[in-house]
Structure formats: C-alpha cells, structure tokens
C-alpha cells in the first residue's frame, strides 16, 4: 500500500508538471533612460509553453503596475492574436503586452524599479484550462532629467489601480441603476401586481404593511445574493459572465415564461391556487401574505435582469472585475435601489392612503394586469424563438403553452374548494400529468441552430469586417443586443430601426453591424468587457480619423445619435 501511494503521488506530480509547464514573464521599460518628456512604455513579455495558449480575456490576461506617486498609465495594448473557429482570440508562443507610461513633474531624477502584477490563464489544445495565475515582475529604469511641466500633463492617461473614489462612484451608480429599474418595462408588471396587494392591505394595521414591504425587499435582496454567488462561481471557474446571462439558457427562460403565463391566467380567474391539503398554508398566508410579498420580490428580480437601466451598465461592468466581496456589495446595492420605493413605504405607510379604497375597480385592474402579463409572455417567447432556432421547434413550444392552458383549466374547473377532496386530488394529478408529459414530448429538439435574424440593412458583427471598414475610412455603427434585452428592443424600435434614422445612416455612409448575444457569444462578451460593460446593450460609433469610438449610454435617443453623426467628416 505504501508503494502504491508513492507511485500514485509521483504520477500526480508528473502529470501536473507535464500539464502546467512554466510560463516565462519578464518586464522592461522602453526607453530605459527616460528624458525630460517623461514618456515611456511598459512592455511585459509572456512566453507560453508549447501546446498551450492564452485566450483574450482582460480580467485574466492583464498587466497592472503598482501605484506610485507621479506615475500614470494608459490602457493596456494587446497585439493581434489568432482567431479560432469559435471567434475567440488566442495567443501562443511569445506575446508582448504594453501600456504607455507618463511621469509627472514632481518625480525626481534617479534610478527606479517598477513592480508589475502580470495575470494570465493558459489552456491546452483540448480546451482544459489551469486556474488563473498572477506573477509579480520588476522593471528597472532611470529618469535622467526633471520632467517638463508641459510634458507632465498627458492627454489620455489613467492611474493604475482602483481608487476609493471610483468605488464609491460606481456603488452610487449601482443604487441609482437599481432604483431606475422600477420604471423599466421589465419590472412594471410585477410592481402593478404588488400594488393590488397593497390596496388589499390598505385597511389593515400599519405594521402589516411594513411587514409586507420588508418581505418584498427581502425577496429582492436574497435573489441578488444568489445572482452574485452564481457570478462569482462562474468567474472563479474561468468563464466570462454578463448581466442577464441566465436568459441565454433555454430551460430558465422556458420555466419563467410558463410561470408568467400561468400567473396571468390566474388573474383572469381561470383557476385559484388552493391545492388539496394546503388549507393550513392558505390560512397562514391569508393572514399576512408575507410569503406572497417575498415571492413577488424574487419575480421582480427575474424580470429585471433583461433590462439594463442607465448607470447600471457601467456599474456592473466595473463590479464584474472586482473581488468577490465587492461583487456582493454591488449586487446588494442594486437590490436596495430596486426595493427602495417599498422600503420608504414600510416606514411611511401613510402614503398608501393616496390609493383608492378597495372596490370593483380592483377586479378590472387585476384583469388589465393579466393582459400585461400576457404581453410579458409574448416578449419572453420572442427570446425562446431565438434560442430554439424558430421554425418547427418554436411550434412545439407553442403547443406546450397550449398544454399549460389546458392544465390550468382542468385544475380551475374541477378542483374548486366546494368539490370533494378526492375530485380535487384527481384534477390536480391530471393537470400535473398534462404538464409533465407535454414537456417530455414537446420540449425535445433535434437541433437548435438559428437565432435572431439580422435587420435589413445591417450585417452580422465580426472584428474582421469592422476593421475592414475602418481601414477603408468608412464610419461604422455597432449595435450589441439580444432578444431578451427589453432595453435593446426599445432602443431598436424607437431609434435604430426607424425610417428617419435609416436615412441618417445612409446620408453619412455609415456601415451598420449588429452583434446578437441572445445565446452566449464569447466574442461579444469580450467586446462588452473591452468597454467596461457587463451586458447588452452597447452602442459604438467609429468615425474616420478617430482612434477611439463614441460609446453611447444604455438608453439612446434620435437627437443623441444624430448629433454624433454630424461630427463625421468635420
């Protein structure tokens, strides 16, 4: 046994040594003797083992100089890599990554050593990757003269590291972004339904209103904690992740679509939730409705993730590259922003007096909310269409939705409270059987190839095509979106895909490219990270003669885009 243990240990050590060959990293400052202009470049050279490669992911492949007084650094500049069959950029062999460096006028002449954190994560040809690593390397250099005051003020530089001011700024943006989510069309259906419950509670004690509002807040915060945990786990595994990533999963979208559809049917009184044997639970929930409020908070978060509110995109882009603890803080602040109106209501319940007293209008309002949920169902089905490739697969999904309606009708018609318990159980089992068997037979697809169609006049995004147009001196507008992104769809319907905007694009000779992230696309996620965004939408305008594109906010307007188009050729 001892010999076997030694042999096993040696085998594991040998396997590790073979797989994790050494990556050589060295840093240097060019020129090594810096003059009065204070300008130089930090070069970090990676020499990757044979058979291993580094994928372009800025959060795992980076160079970060130690912060020093008077030193500022430009953005990281990567060389051209090899694009594989999946559209990912890979680096092999010897790779040089660099950042511009500017010394300030207060830096005294003399010898210096710059310490640099160099991060990387290498993978083999089979796609198996080692854990991300970070090495510290040093680069000596000499400043030969005092930096002139004019040279000490570079046009575009950014301090290395993240300051406390930056963190506070983005935390505030996360809270404001969560607050704005309340008025986004994704969340409005849930808020409207929650309003019905508040009206029902308006005649109750103030303490009950407070408990219901805090339960709703708890549902939101717990959901955001779960989302934060999922993001952290995925990041630690080496995968890229963005806001709304769960809507790229067919199972998740189908379950959410089914729940929203069935909930809408219940608002039309197709059925009443009162399953046999649940009378005790019904009585308990009837007293406070706190579990209902908690679940409403969860649903609000699920429906909020397809939306990216103003401020939220930049805040999430910053959060996704932070340590796990900061990611949790950011997500909790977004949740507090989303729940803030109900937090105010919990401590100032007198506001509810502005809502009319209960009456017949509530039934009309409830049924109107049912139509709103049906609209939400159709919106989600649009995402399902893209995920399953449309055609016959989508028809199978529609038949499943019809089966859901049948199951709801069976339960609502034959499991009413005045029916015998045995009949209620039979109806419940029959309804469940219809759902289960229809899902087994209808939601099985041979192929899910396809996706959202590119709008007429637009072309599918690719870095090569973009570079080709830039080299030809043509302006280019890039739209990164997804079928599940309601903010994207609103911008497209009101701005990008309108007749007068098409005329403006044609007037200035703008080439139009669209990247679809309905399904997870590593290339698009890479570009989102490149511009510090955690999710779609992202809009870029490349103008001839300009090194960097114009980056638009998440919500765009026609005047905003037209004003930037007017600058072409000036």
Description:
- The protein is an alpha+beta fold and 570 residues long.
- 48% of the residues lie in helices and 16% in strands.
- The protein has helices spanning 2-19, 164-180, 188-201, 206-236, 250-267, 279-288, 290-304, 312-319, 324-347, 361-388, 391-414, 421-442, 463-471, 486-496, 499-507, 522-530, 558-565, and strands at 24-30, 33-34, 39-47, 52-55, 62-65, 71-73, 82-83, 89-91, 94-103, 110-120, 122-124, 133-143, 459-460, 476-481, 511-516, 538-542, 550-551.
- The chain has a five-stranded mixed sheet, with helices on one face. A four-stranded antiparallel sheet has the order 1-3-9-6, with no helix packed on it. Strands 2-12-10-5 form a four-stranded mixed sheet, with no helix packed on it.
- The protein is elongated and about 95 Å long.
- The N and C termini lie far apart (80 Å).
- Residues 3-20, 154-162 and 274-288 have low confidence and may be disordered.
Q: Topology of this protein?
A:
Layout: H1 2-19, E1 24-30, E2 33-34, E3 39-47, E4 52-55, E5 62-65, E6 71-73, E7 82-83, E8 89-91, E9 94-103, E10 110-120, E11 122-124, E12 133-143, H2 164-180, H3 188-201, H4 206-236, H5 250-267, H6 279-288, H7 290-304, H8 312-319, H9 324-347, H10 361-388, H11 391-414, H12 421-442, E13 459-460, H13 463-471, E14 476-481, H14 486-496, H15 499-507, E15 511-516, H16 522-530, E16 538-542, E17 550-551, H17 558-565
Helix pairs in contact: 2-8, 2-9, 3-7, 3-10, 4-7, 4-9, 5-10, 5-11, 8-9, 11-12
Offer a concise description of the structure.
The chain contains 17 helices and 17 strands.
